[in-house]
Structure formats: structure tokens, C-alpha cells
Amino acid sequence: MNPAEPGDLDTIIADYLQAAERGQAPAPASWLARHPDHAAQLLAFLTDLGRFGDFLGLPKQPALEATTDLSSPATGTDARSVAGGEGERFGEYELIRVLGQGGMGTVYEARLAGTNLRVALKVLKPAELEGAEATRRLREEVENTAGLRHPHIVPIYHVGEHVGRPFYTMELIEGGSLDQHLERYRGQFAKAARLLASTARAVHHAHQRRILHRDLKPGNILLDAADEPHVADFGLATRLDDAGTASDSGPPAGSLPWMAPEAVRGETTLSTAIDVWALGVILYELLTGLRPFGGASARELRQAILHQEPPAPRAVNPGVPRDLDAVCRRCLHKDPERRYESTNALALELERWLRDEPVRARRAGRMERVARWCRRNPGLAVGSILLLVLLLTSLEAALALTRDQEQKLRVVVCRNNEFVARHVASSVLGRLEQLSEPVLAAAGDDDLRRACDHAKIAEAQAVLERHFQGRSRARLSFATVYLLDPDGKLVALLDPDHPRQGQQAPASRVLGDPFSSRDYFQGALRHRYERAPRDRIHLSRVYRSQNDGLDKLAISCSVLPEGPNKRSWILAATITTDATLGVESLHDARHKAVLFAPRDADPIRPGELPMPAGYVILVHPAFLTGEKSVPFPADRPGLVTLPSEEPELRPASGPPPFASDDDYADPVADHGHPEFSGRWLTGSARVGNTELIVLVQQRYEEAVAPYQAIIRRFLLIAGGLVGLVLLSLVGLRLIQARRRRQSAIPSG
Amino acid sequence: MAAARVAAEMALECFRDYLCALARIQVAARPWLAAKLDASDVVQHTLLKAHAARDQFRGRSAAEMAGWLRQILARTLANELRALGQARRDVGAEQSLNAALDASSCRLEAWLAADQSSPSERACKREQTDALAEAVARLPADQREVVLLKHCQGLALADIAAQLGRSPASVAGLLRRGLERLREILDDKNHP
Are residues B23 and B51 both part of a single domain? Predict the structure, then answer.
């Protein structure tokens, strides 16, 4: 027979039942003794049979308490062998050693004679023998514990009486009691919490069966080989009534250091809260190694329990986790109502702490709760972080994509502007050719050449007036027309737009002044030897007129001498700032075309074409005719390539004079035209082979409007989501607060 | 007259839990009926019949009243079984049911008398029988079978083993586990 097989257990039970049916049921103690390997299970069966035997109609079982007359043949029954020594026989048990002295008796390690079943055997102290009260207490303890079957409560096997002394046996827990092992729990907070949670659950089991332990202390918590706690010694336990309180008429019972204030005061109605208190004291000992209350005498100790607030466990041992500190202090509340409502609640709380969940006793900070939640749900936490990262990166990617698209669009728009600028530039070139025609006609007029050769100023003036005044074709927006002699002296001047009599007075101011340093003079001289008359035209740089103070650009041309050894005179017709330069449809709804011209450097070194001293805006949609030109910022457009020495009125070629700008600020915005402020996208083109530059500008907002709309929508959605989340958080908060308020109102 | 009738009905009502327990056990002993037959319906019928026939009751004590009600219950149960095609002959079925009910009642009484966990629990004696019957009904089928063969028919272990085609040890094991489970169910019920 293999004693380890459960089938074996059932065979034993079957044998027992069949014997019982014949009316020959063996006495429980000896039956248990015969099967020591299954003693605990057989005892459980006997207990169940005691309870349900009647229901099954089985013959009346010998009750456990009825086994008092048991005596094995080997037992010496004389009065001298009253248990008290070790190695002696006690009834059918052999006493091995004293395990401890309980409240009312001595506990031995004992062996059932003839077996290897070792048990703990509790006998009343000889001194207590007389007291019927003590006997009653022992009976009560047995009755109380017998109904309790829990893995963490020491089970009672057998109750009996030997030579008039009541005793009972229970499971032998080998590890000794907790008070011998407190040191091992120093700093081992998780271990301590687990131990106390198991203990609290066992105590709760008893409470559910209406048994109040009343004497919980480390000495009554036994540890087995696996350090599992077993609650023992229900010697002081009392029954709870339906209201969950116990009425106790006797003197305060329990061990003082672990007694709750209401028990110390001797209150007659006690509740499970005193066991919660005792567990709190044990927790305090486990956490700090000290008892919460002390005193040189029982009186002092009593006063301390009643009136003193013990130092917080963290104050004694700073390493104690905050939550356990709070749990412990909640157990040790002077007011029983404010302790945990049950030891089960305490167990749940400790288990919550072990699982890293927030405890009820203390509200953790926000960060702590988040960190805890993450530790508890690492998968979920990593998942949500990944999700968040994914969300952010995809949002970022979408925005980057949009930005990239927008960037590309900007390039395209700028490039487009360049093409528009080229087109505009050729229109402007055509216009300039048109403007050059009367100048060429006058310069090629033989009357003028003769008058110049002979320095007949009056004749020359008459020729000019014939060409530039009174003929509608020639009246092409010229501001003034000059004739300069070969030394650059201004010899004739007329204002084609004004009647002859009106222009004499201002013209006299500059007549005779030398202007050889002006670009219109030098440029016309440079081109004077070109074969085709048209190629002798020079588009000058912009200068400020000494005559009328206008910013002007001159179309100048040399008047070639007829006779030999004569020098060239110079004819110049000027145009001033304007909105369109007389070109139709220079601008449309989106594109604004602007004409730039270099500013004339003054003075200029002859024979050399210097870099221009910066550019000015001569034609701009914002301008009224004759308005002051607007200087272009010095740092823009940077180095501009100069046109070649070729004739100027030639079709344009080569790269744009300066690079497109996608962040262009129109300078006229700072010169009285604020409607042109903002960001522009530009493209430029050179007007023929001149130094003039056409710039086409388009508003940034209009060009990239679709992408702006996408980004705006993105931001709107993202903002909306964030707002929604915030709103729901606030809502949750409010609901929580309301719940808390409602639950704070005492019910009933 | 009216007061007496009310008193009689009150008295009948007192036996409801008791009859429920008996009926439950009988239904539990026939697990194939559990879906078709509701013990509380049977008891309701029984009480209605008893109320209609209350003038025929000649006894004086509560025990006599209980015996009379058991007879009506046996007849009601037998009718129900016949209606469900479970009983062959009227008289025999009713008699064996009567015997089973008597034995069951007897053992329930004995159990009640012995199982007194506490004075306060003694007060709800009748509810306890019903609770026990309900707990029995909640046992796993094989354990319930063994427990009820013992309870209703008082069969010896060897007879049960022979009837079920099991070894005595396995029957004993079923009984042991059945009692353990009963205790757990009842304890959970008493102390929710």
C-alpha cells in the first residue's frame, strides 16, 4: 500500500464507513493514530461526518469530545504521571518537549504513541486546574477552533481529558512563532506585507464564522517551513453576535501590548476592529522592529495605548514605504470606526500594495499613480507610449510632407514668376524701343547734325522742338529732352509736356552746366560708333535731376557729326517714375511687375563702367507719375552681373540677373505704400541687354493658399482633439469630485 | 371561523420551507427531471391542495400536520411524474415516494436537531433544511447521487457500490468530497 495515494485515503474511509454501518466504528483518536499519514484529512472527514451524518442516516458517530475515556493499553494511568515533564507519556501521547507556555496552559510537542504522527498538545497548567473557568475556556477554544478550517489557521485534531486534565492536540507547526523570527522581516517589506495579508485573511475567516480571536500577537502566529503563517491559540476567542459585536462580561482579556484602546478601557462590546488593531501592531513591529507603544509599567503602557499617538513607522525607519506607513497608521486609529472595516479589507489593502496598486489609506501623487499604473500594466503603458509616438511622428510626417509640398510649390511659383518676368521684360524692351524711335529720328536728323557741327544752339533747339513738341506721336511721356555738347555741357533743354513759354525759367538754371559724368552721357559716348543707329541707344542709370528734382532715366544717343574732325553731341530724352511705363497689362490680379534700375554713381570715372551704387525701383504699380523712386535695400539683390558691352536694345539672354526670392519684402511698403507689405515670391529677368531688371512678385499667401489650408485644418483637428481630451479630463475630474462629495455624506 | 381559517393558512405557510426541502431532494434525486420540474411549483400545488382539503385534516399536532402534508406532496409528486411519463403504476409509485419522503423527513429532522451551530442559527431552523436541500442540488452529479442514495434509501456502502458499479473506495471518496463540498456551500451561504 502506497500511503501517498489518495485512493488509499478513500479505502480507509470506506473501511470506516462499513465498520460504522455494522455499528463497529473505531474510536476516532485510535483510528487517526492508525493512519498518521492521513490524520488531517481523516479528521476533516470525521468533522464533516459529525455534521452531516444525521442527514445521511448513518449510525450515530462517537463525537470527538466523547473520546475522553481513550486509553491505549500502554498508558500508565496512575495519578503520578500527570503531564509536566518531557519524555513522559500523556495518555496515548508521548511528550517530546515543551513548545511554549500559553495563556492558560502548556503546549508540548508530542507523538501519538506507536506512530510517527507528531502533534502539538496543549494541556492546562496544573495551577489552573482548579478553575472551572479555565476548563470552560479551553472547551470554548476547542469549540471555536473546531469549526474553523483554513490553511492559515492551526487545525485541532483531537480533544480529550487525561487524569482529569483536559487537553487537545493540533497540527504541529515546526517553524516556531513569529516573535522568534521578527528580525528576519527587518527591511523585508514585501515579505512582511505578504505574511500579514495571509494572517489577516485567516483572521477574517474566523470573523466570518463569528469568532473574534482577541489575542493576536506574534507569539500566536506560527510559521511553518515555508514561512507561511498559521494563526493559533483561540483561547481568548469569543463569539460575535449578529451585529458583529461580542459582549464580554469578564475582565479585559488579551495581551496588553497588542490590545486596542477600547479593549484596554474594558468596554463590554467589542468588534472585529480589535483584531484589526492587533494586526496593525504586528505590522508596526514587522516594519520597524519596535512596538508602537511602550511603558515601564502596565499602567504606563495602558496610558500610552489610550492617549498617545505612536510615532509614524516612517519616523522610526525611514525606509518604510509610504503606503505601508499609511496602512499601519490606519490600523492603529484610536477610533475603531476609522480603522479598516474588516481584516479582509486590510488583507486586500496589503495585496493592493504588493501589486503596486494605490492603497486606500493614502492618496498617491499624480506622477506616482501614473508610474504605478505603468509598472502594473507594462504592456499597455509601452503600447500607449508607442501609440503616442506613432501619432506624433505621423502628425509630424504629415506636417513635414505638407511643408515639403509647400516648399516645392514655392520653387515652382518662383520659377513661374521668372517666366512671367521674362515675358514682361520683353514687353518693356518693346516699349523702350518704341520710346527710342523719336530720339533716333532726332539724332539722325541732318539739320541737327549740322547745327551741332557748327554749334548753332538755337537751330538745334528748333530741330528738337520740331521733333518732340507738337507731334502727338513723339509725345511719349518724356519728362525732358536735353542736348549736350561734346564736353558734356547742357546746351539745350525742352520739356515736351509743357508749352514753350513755361519752361524757360527752370531750364535756365541748368543750361550751361557740365554733365559729362552722368551715365547717359558716358553710355551714349560708349555706343557712338555702332553701325546701326538703333544700337547707339543707351538706357542710362537713374539719377536725380538738378533741373526738376525728379528721379529719371534717360534714353540717350550720340548725334554723329557730319563733317570730319567734329565730336559727337549727345541727345537724351528722360522718363521718370511711373506705374506702368505706358505698357498695357503690365500687372494682373496675381502678378505685380516692377522695374528696377541701377542708381547712377556720382562722380564717375570716365572710360570705365563701375558697379552701380545700388538699385532703385523706377516703375511700380503703387507709383504715381513723378514720385520719388524707392531705393532697394543695399544687401539685395547682392552682386548683379552687368550686361555685356553689346548694344543694349537686344533680346535678352542668359540667366536671371538675380536669384528668385521666396521671402521678399517689398521696399515700397516702407515708403508710403503699406498695402504692399507682407511676404512675396519673386522672379526676375533682365530687360534686353540693359541694366534694367524686371521683377515679378506674387503674394506668398495667395500662392501657397491650398497648403496653408491643409496645415490649418491639421492644426485645427489636432487642437480640437487636444481640447476634447482636456475637456473630458476636466469632466471626469468633476464627476469624481461629485462622487467623492456624495460618498462623504454619511448615509442614513 | 374566518380567524380560524387564517390561522390554518398561516400554519400551512409555516411548512413551505420544509416541503420545499423534501421536494428539492426528490427532484435532485432525479436529475433528468431538473429541467422539467420545479420543486417550488410542486410545493405550491401541494399547499393549494392542502388548503382546499383542510377540513379533512383530523390531527392536532404539528407532526401530524407534517405527515399529512407529506402524503399530499407524495401524491402531487406522483401525479407530476406520471404526467411526465416517469411513473408506471399509481399506487406503487405513490407508496414508494411516501416511504422515501418519510425517510428523508426523518433524517432532515435528525440533522436539524444535531446541527446547531449557534443559538441564533437555531432560530432559522426551517430555512436551514431548505438551504441544505439546495446545497445538495448544487453538488456535482456523481457526488449528489451517492449522497442521495444514502439519504433517501439508507443504502449501505456496499449496496451503493454494487448499484453504481463502482468500488466501495470510490463511493467513499465521492461521499467524502460530497460532504466537503456541502460544508463549503453551506458555510459560504451562511457567511456571504
Answer: yes
What is A178-376's CATH topology?
Transferase(Phosphotransferase); domain 1 (1.10.510)
**Inter-chain touch B173–A210, beta carbons under 8 Å:** no
Note the residue count of chain A: 748
Sign of CA dihedral A522, A523, A526, A531: negative
Q: Given an 8 Å threshold on Cβ–Cβ distance, is A17 in contact with B175?
A: yes
Answer for the pair A50, A25: CB distance below 8 angstroms, yes or no: no
For residue B2, the distance in angstroms to the closest alpha carbon of chain A comes to: 38
A–B: how many Cβ contacts below 8 A? 86
In a shared domain, residues B109 and B153: no
For the domain spanning A415-703, the CATH number is: 3.30.450.20
Determine whether the interchain pair A57/B151 forms a contact, defined as Cβ–Cβ distance below 8 Å.
Answer: yes
The model's pLDDT over A580-615, given as tens digits with 9 standing for 90+, comes to: 887 776 777 788 888 888 888 655 555 555 666 678
Q: For residue B14, is it within any domain?
A: yes
Residue A7 sits at the chain B interface (C-beta within 8 Å): yes
The domain ranges of chain A are: 1-172, 178-376, 415-703, 706-748
A373 touches chain B (CB under 8 A): no
Work out the average pLDDT over A99-120.
77
Is residue B133 included in any domain, yes or no? no
Q: Are residues B148 and B88 in the same domain?
A: no
In a mutagenesis test of the A interface, which of B179, B181, B184, B187 is the best target, namely the one with the most A β-carbons within 10 Å?
B179
| Contact between A52 and B183 using a beta-carbon 8 Å cutoff | yes
B128 belongs to a structural domain: no
pLDDT digits (tens, 9 = 90+) for A30-70: 777 777 677 777 877 877 777 777 777 776 555 444 333 33
CA distance A105 to A131: 12
| ∠ CA A82-A83-A88, rounded to 5° | 110
Nearest CA in chain B to A244: B191
**Cβ of A57 and B172 within 8 Å?**
no
Q: Which of A10, A38, A208, A342 to mutate to test the interface with B (most CBs of B within 10 A)?
A: A10
Residue that the C-alpha cell 516594519 belongs to: A287
Instruction: Enter the pTM of the model.
Output: 0.43
Burial class (CB in 10 A: 0-12, 13-18, 19+), A380: exposed
Alpha helices, H only, A355-480? 366-376, 378-443, 446-453, 457-468
Instruction: Give the range of the structural domain holding residue B73, as residue numbers without chain letter.
Output: 2-118
Chain A touched by B56 (CB under 8 Å):
no
The DSSP bridge pattern shows strands A680-686 and A693-699 to be antiparallel
